[in-house]
Amino acid sequence: MTASSELQTLRDSIDNIDAALIHLLAERFKCTKAVGELKAEHGMAPADPAREATQIARLRALAQAARLDPDFAEKFLGFIVREVIRHHEALRDKQG
């Protein structure tokens, strides 16, 4: 196998993984939207710091087991959580 064909094979794999990540994120946001709607309907806070702390610890452990940098995993989750909270705040404000 030539270097260029090996590179293309690796890039094809990366493209497939990226597509899977996008689909997984879309599915995750469908679930978090339902959570946000439920919270808004019942006057619950958009953020849940206890849940977030539990999720960070869980994700760091999963990352470590998968040999992925736990700090990176925490930053990645933090970005997603901030976006979810922003959506939940918008749903709350829409209800209000």
Labels describing this entry:
96 residues; mainly alpha
Which term fits the overall shape? elongated
First-last Cα distance: 62 Å
Rg, Å, rounded: 18 Å
N-to-C series of helices and strands: HHH
- The overall pLDDT average reads 95
Number of beta-strand segments: 0
Residue runs with pLDDT of under 50 for 5 or more positions: none
Strand content: under 5%
Helicity range: over 70%
Which structural class do the helices and strands define? Answer: mainly alpha
Description:
- The chain is mainly α and about 100 residues long.
- The protein has helices at about 5-40, 50-65, 70-95.
- Helix 1 (about 5-40) packs parallel to helix 3 (about 70-95) and helix 2 (about 50-65) runs antiparallel to helix 3.
- The mean pLDDT is about 95.
Kindly summarize this structure in a few lines.
The chain has 96 residues and is an all-alpha fold. It has helices at residues 3-41, 49-65, 70-95.
Blueprint of the fold:
Elements (H helix, E strand, L loop, with lengths): L2 H39 L7 H17 L4 H26 L1
Helix pairs in contact: 1-3, 2-3
